[in-house]
Structure formats: structure tokens, C-alpha cells
Amino acid sequence: MIIYILLLLSLVSLTISFFIYDIKVEIVPIVAESPIVKIFPDCGALSNHKIFFEVTGFSPNGNVHWEFIDSKANIDSYGYFETDEFGGFEEYIIAEVTKPDIYILRFFDDKNNNFLKDFNGSEVIINYQIPCANPIF
């Protein structure tokens, strides 16, 4: 009986040792969280209005390029915001758009301001309707 228990413990020990070695060589991918872009209001009026951005999660101490794109892929306006040490900012733009459409607000990391998303940079795309379906303005 004692030999049986020792043999069983020996097999369990070998199995655990083998399992531990497998863990040491296993590669676990790290998944980064996407940036968070909050906008207010979530739709716009036909005349000039401010769009406020509360943003976190882009590259720290970098630049985020933003674009206001219409449904025909024309960039109506664009610019840059500097991020803080946490990759965020709180800013606004004035939307001077006067035609009804469903626009895209696009944000991406662009540290060197070359109008191109950085390699491994983050990107967020949000739909923005003008005018609002239920106008409050």
C-alpha cells in the first residue's frame, strides 16, 4: 500500500513538474485597452456649435489627430490635441458644418503630426449626426 501511494505521488509530482515547465514557455499576449472618447453633445445642430471631448487612453505626452469626415469621405475639419501624462485631454471644437449628414469623428495617435496614424498607435471612430434626430438645440 505504501509503495502504491509513493508511486502515485511520484506520478503526480512528474505531472505537476511537466505542467510548470509548460507554463514557463507559454506566451501570453497582452491586450491593451482601447482609448475612451466621450463627446457632448452626441449629435449636433445645423448652425455652429461646440463639441466637447473627454478623452483618455491614447499615448501619453503625445498628439492626437482628429478629423470631422462627411459621408462622402471628405474631411470637413481636422486638428490636433496634446495628450497629458495619462494619454488624455479635455477640449472642444466648433463644428461649422451646415449640411445634414452622419459624420465620422476620427481620433488617432500622431506623435510627429504627419497626418498618419502612428505604428501601433490607437484609433477611435465615432458617428456624429447633424442635425440631431430629436433636436434639443
Q: What secondary-structure arrangement, pairings included, does this model have?
A:
Layout: H1 2-25, E1 36-40, E2 49-56, E3 63-69, E4 75-82, E5 89-95, E6 101-109, E7 123-130
Antiparallel strand pairs: 1-2, 2-5, 3-4, 3-6, 6-7
Characterization of this structure:
The chain is α+β, with helices and mostly antiparallel strands. The chain has a domain at 36-130: Sandwich (Immunoglobulin-like). Helices cover 18% and strands 38% of the residues. The protein has 1 helix and 7 strands, in the order αβββββββ. The chain has one helix at 2-25, and strands at residues 36-40, 49-56, 63-69, 75-82, 89-95, 101-109, 123-130. The protein has a 4-stranded antiparallel beta sheet, with no helix packed on it. A hairpin with an 8-residue loop joins strand 1 (36-40) and strand 2. The protein is globular, with a radius of gyration of 26 Å.
What's the short version?
The protein is of the alpha+beta class and 137 residues long.
Task: Provide the low-confidence segments as ranges.
Answer: 11-19
Say which CATH homologous superfamily of the domain at 36-130 is assigned: Neocarzinostatin-like
Order of helices and strands: HEEEEEEE
CATH architecture of the domain at 36-130: Sandwich
Number of helices: 1
What is the C-alpha radius of gyration, as a whole number of Å? 26 Å
Instruction: Classify the helix fraction into a percent range.
Output: 10-25%
Briefly, what CATH class of the domain at 36-130? Mainly Beta
N-end to C-end Cα span = 85 Å
Largest sheet: 4 strands, antiparallel
